[in-house]
Amino acid sequence: MSKRISARILDLLFPPHCPICGKGSGKDGCLCPECLAKYDGEQKEKCPVCMKTAGDCTCGLAGVSRTFLGDKRTVALAFYHPHGTGGARVTERLVRIFKKRYDRSLTDLFARDISGKILLLMKASEEDPTEWIVTFPPRSNENRRKYGFDQGQIAAKSISRYTGIPWKKTLRRSGGDEQKELCRGDRELNSGSLKLARNADVNCRKIILFDDIITTGATVRAATDLLTDAGAECVFPVCIARVQKESKAGK
Question: Which range of residues forms the domain containing residue 46?
Fold first, then answer.
């Protein structure tokens, strides 16, 4: 109670500002109304191949996700554009902030949106959330030391709070570099730095695997292999954004 009161007093003394444009944030506690509208609009963008949004599109995911929850292979809020318009898009800019600076309101924004979609899928599939756990592939040791936190762990905790699904650290890193800094081939090799955490018990467990961005899918595939080899019943990946598959005409 005292923490909530203190946080409320701080908000009154120092009103939160939008991390994108610096204006006062709206009722979501993170983005101003204009940036929130852009963020929401990016979630409505459609794949050029199947004409579905990121949350419904399964293009290119057959080799990444082996589990269906309802008719979905993953939960993704928006498409990720590593080149071209990426610099101007709210979602990509928010993910960069999410990786480099701990921002509770931003983490809550992502976790709240992802959690809502997870719970809807579980309800439609008649799944019991208490039979699942939330986990994450940890960031590189170097970047955890550099930024002082692991954004995957913080997001997993927040998703757990919104869904009631317990979170658990099941994976660890043995060296390795940050995936975004590597080319496609090196990402595949770097995913080998993932290991099963010591004393991780995932036998017969159903797992929600959070990764902030799915690009080549190397990290998700490596994590899925480790967890299923250790006895996990299924692994369902969720993310903030995923790479959009190009149409043949766009290549």
Answer: 18-250
In a domain? residue 13: no
N- to C-terminal Cα distance for the chain?
55
Bridge-based pairing of strands 234-243 and 206-210 is parallel
Backbone angles phi, psi at 196, to 5 degrees: -70, 135
CATH number for position 154: 3.40.50.2020
The more confident residue out of 84 and 230 is 230
Task: Extract the tokens encoding 126.
Answer: 């008649």
Tens-digit pLDDT profile for residues 100-128: 999 999 999 999 999 999 999 999 999 99
Strands 213-214 vs 194-196: parallel, antiparallel or unpaired: unpaired
Indicate the burial class of 15 (C-beta count within 10 angstroms; 0-12, 13-18, 19 or more): exposed
Total of domains in the chain: 1
Residue 8 lies in a domain: no
Instruction: Tell me the whole-structure pTM to 2 decimals.
Output: 0.85
